[in-house]
Every structure is written in structure tokens, then in C-alpha cells.
Amino acid sequence: xxxxxxxxETLNTPALPLQTSSSAPEEEKREKSSPETQPVDPSSVVxxxxxxxxxxxxxxxxxxxxxxxxxxxxxxxxxxxxGQITLPSDRxxxxxxxxVLVVGNALFDQPRNALPxxxxxxxxxxxEDAISILHKLLTGLDVNIKFSGVRDxxxxxxxxxxxLLGIMLYHGWVVDPSSEVAEIIKGLSYNxxxxxxxxxxxxxVKNNNNDLLVKAMLCEEFMANSGSQLTIHGLxxxxxxxxxxxxxxxxxxxxxxxxxxxxxxxxxxLTDQGFLHENMVWETLNDVDATFSEFVNGNFQPVTPTAExxxxxxxxxxxxxxxxxxxxxxxxxxxxxxxxxxxAAAAEAAASHPRQTVPPSLPAYQTPNAxxxxxxxxxxxxxxx
Length: 385
Hints:
Blueprint lengths: L1 E2 L22 H8 L12 E9 L2 E6 L7 H13 L2 E2 L6 E3 H13 L8 H16 L9 E2 L16 H6 L3 E3 L10 H4 L4 H18 L2 H16 L6 H10 L5 E6 L2 E8 L2 E5 L12 E3 L10 E2 L5 E2 L3 H9 L4 H33 L17 H10 L3 E2 L1
Parallel strand pairs: 1-4, 7-8
Antiparallel strand pairs: 2-3, 2-5, 6-14, 8-9, 9-10, 10-11, 11-12, 12-13
Helix pairs in contact: 2-3, 7-8
């Protein structure tokens, strides 16, 4: 079992005062007090520990502040709920660096003596690879979902951390196999689809290929309609794929969260620091836009958030999911407008050049215009937190 080792008591050490001597130049004092000159080391970021009721016992969970690394917290909270690791009972906060150490200890503690020699060597190599990239948990992971199923991801080295710890990673961005676009999308990853949309549109405009244009439009419509990165079909598949009483990690809206299936209901762990002193522990996952979600306590009884908790959570990282969705929607709307403007210009040009006529299209999800868009597409190929 991974157990947090004793660490030096640095959290209670008083911070050094800023230079206040009147002999120091004003510009130097402003430079010393400017947060821009003092970048925050994610390993030193402090996270508050909240005690929750879990299966008739008290269990600590790690809460997330504004700079919290959500993949690290999601993994640690799964292990805490599963009893794979423990924290000293007198701790009320913990740093990001200490959390990485906790995960590292858990990886080294994996049983391997009873394995055959070849399997043991393979496990040891995988463990070394995972240890070498643990620092990425502090800043984000490279994840590329596939639209074919809730467990389908393009393999990356970072995913071996989940495998070694026995933690399932899910997503809900799944295409409905009965939909018109399913045959086009179901075998693709997010990166492949965005690349294809760009290529299809360029080819359609270049060669006046209406079939490719229609294919691109159908995919763009799917992307625009599933901007929350959760589809109705994906939600149903998630519910059927999660095992009874399973605790796992959900990737959605470029955010990792701890989820739990109890009966037929899926719950998301509330890790926003704004809920630190509140009785709310979980939020139900009932629909794609949280219209019918509700908060529950450690006994899974519905509770109403206080005004203070609602205000705190709206400013904290738990609402980053919604904020990221809003930002995504705004980006999509901007691209839709740009594409409509481009199509309007193309239609106007087509009036003078009939051979270049392109039929009216649905709003586009991604702007395929010129080299700048190509560079932007390359930057967005990987979903990195």
C-alpha cells in the first residue's frame, strides 16, 4: 500500500516579507512584488484535504484550487476511495509534489514477486516508464479519444499510469452508431477527425468535390452538437460499461474527474475547494448539459448548496468544466461566423465563375482557411490540459 512518507514541515514556515526599505527604487519594489516574476511551481501548490463519509468510514479526498492539476487529483482520489493509499490523519493540506510522490510509491508497491520472470521484467520496465513521466500529472496529460466507445483512446505513454494502478479511464464522446455520420466517424480519433475535416474541405474547394464537402459538413455538425464532449449515446454506454460500485476517472471537457457508479446512477466527486466545508460530496451525471444534475452528501442523499458554496464553486476549478465548455462554445461560434463569411464570399465569387460554385453548407466547426488555420489545427491536434 502506498503511504505518504514523512516530509519536512515547510507549509507552516512564515513567508519572507517583501522588501520595504525606502532606499530601494520603486521599480525594483514593483518587480519584487509582481507575481509575473515569480512563476508558481506546480509541485509547491497546496491542496486542501477534505474528510468525507465513504461506506461508513471517514476518508480524505484532495480538493482542487485554481491551478490544480486535475489528472493527478483524479488518480489520487480514486486510490484513496479504493483504499490503495492512505494519508496521515492529521494532515489538512498537501502539495502537488507530495501527491506525485504518493503515486510513485504506489507504482513501486505493485506486487511482482509472484510473476514469471519475463512478465516481471515487463512490469518493471513499464513502471520505470511511468515514473519518468509522473511529473506530467502536475500540468496535464496528452489524451486523444476515439469516437467508437467510452474506453477507446489512442495509446500514449501517459495512459500506462492508469493501467499500472488498475484505474479505468473513460470518456463519453461517442458517436451514435445509428446516426448518419457514424460510418464516417466511428473508426477515428479526435486528432484524425479534425485532420480529415480540414483535408476534406480543402480538397472539396480545390476540386469542386461535393461528396467530400458533405462529409466534412456532417462531421462538423457532429462536433458542434457535442461541444460538451458527451453525447446521449455516450452517456448510456458509460452507464452500461461501468461495473457495479466501480470507481474510475472520466475525461470530459479536457478535464479529469473521479466518478463512481452506485446502482444505476453515476456520480462525479466534487473536488472544488469551494465545497471544502460543505456537506455536498457528489454530483449526479444524468444528462449532457447538467440540467437535471443534483448534489448529494456522503450518504448519497440530495442536498441543496448554500449561496456561499455556489459562489465559491462558480469561481473554482470544479466549474472549469463548464467554463471550458463556454470557451469552447464561443470558439465554435467564432469559427462558424468566419466560415459563413467565407462561404458568402465564395458564393459571391461563384456568381461570376460558375465552375467554382459550391452548394450552401452547414456551419463549419473548423475554419480551413489558409496557412494560419493549418498551423492552428496542428497546435490543437493533441488535447493537453
